[in-house]
Structures are given as structure tokens and as C-alpha cells.
Amino acid sequence: MSAGFPDFRLGSVLATSFTATLTERRGEALERIPTPHRLVDWLAVSGLAVDSCTGAQLELARELRESIHAAATAAAIHAAPPASAVRIINDRSIQGRAAAVLTPEGTREWRLSSPDCVEDALGVIAADAIGVISGERDGKLALCASPTCQAAFFDTSQSRTRKWCDMGTCGNRQKKARFNANQRKDPG
Fold it and tell me: Which of 27, 77, 84, 186 is the most exposed place for a label (fewest CB within 10 A)?
């Protein structure tokens, strides 16, 4: 935990990890990027380091996050994504000017046009969301089975039957609740 803020939930898929910066959407929502500095922190740990972020850029990021969540949720239930979400995702993708570069180690890295261009980082996230939501990536969008969470996540498990957005939080919480309910039913 950093400066009293909750840790980030980082997954292997950039777009759905970004939507996880707001968790417990159906319970007591937990905002993991409450300040511009926390967005800078999240972008850094996600390989999209920027030097600073303004309040206006934080609002653009949150608008993108909620648009990705809405479109991914629609895709997970095989519904059409909201037109406003599609527009925002497309706008952020178009406005970004980041470039993918190959590192000497043979991995992809993103280069932003300048160290203070949060819009470039948002463009990378939006482009990743487009790939995930459009079905171009190998995996399946699903919704977390936790009744307080129901986050959209990208399931790349072999069977494509994962139930939880994060086993360490939602999965463990649900398994513990089920265990405790069974203990109350059968105390002996």
C-alpha cells in the first residue's frame, strides 16, 4: 500500500487491469486512482511511465476506464457496447501518439511522444481495449462471479471457465464465505 492508498490489481491484460482501478463496483466502490499522482503510479507499473498528470487528464482516464468497463461488460454478455463508450474508446485511441518499440531483450515497450503525455498512455490502453473487446485476442471476456464486484476480466485460462477477476481477493472472499456458510449449517 502506498500513502494510505490501496494497492493496484495488475493482471496480464492492460485494458482490464485499468478497469480494476475501480473495484467493488456493486458494493462499497474502492477508487484506486483517486489523485493524479496515483494515475502516474499506475501508469508507471503498467509500463506507460509519465512524469506528471493533471486533474483534467485524470478525468479523461476515468472516462476511458468507465467506457472500457461498459463495453467489456456488454461484450461479456454478448450485447452491443454502448455507443458513447465506443466513441470515447475510439477517441482516446486516435488521440494517442505512442509507438511500440522492440527492446534488445525482444519484448515490446511503449514510447510516449513526451514524458508528460498522459493522452499517449490512454491511447495505448484504448488500443488494447479495442483488441480485447473486438475478439482479436485469444481469450474470453467474462464478469466476476462476486456479487459485489462483477468486474469485466479477460479469461485466458485453457478452459475459459474462470469465475473471479482476481483469485487473491474476490475468489478467496467467495470461497471463505461459502466455507463459513457450510460451517454454520453443519457445526459438527
Answer: 186
Contacts 24+ apart (CB under 8 A), 139-147: 139/13, 141/72, 141/75, 141/76, 142/76, 143/73, 143/76, 143/77, 144/170, 145/170, 145/174, 146/170, 146/173, 146/174, 147/26, 147/27
Grouping H, G, I as helix, E, B as strand and the rest as coil, residue 152 is strand
User: Which amino acid would we find at residue 179?
Assistant: F
Residue 68 Ramachandran class (φ > 0 left, ψ -120 to 50 alpha, else beta): alpha
- Could you tell me the three cell numbers for 180? 463459513
**Cα separation, 69 vs 151, whole angstroms:** 8
Q: What is the grid cell recorded at 79?
A: 450485447
Predicted TM-score of the model (pTM)? 0.85
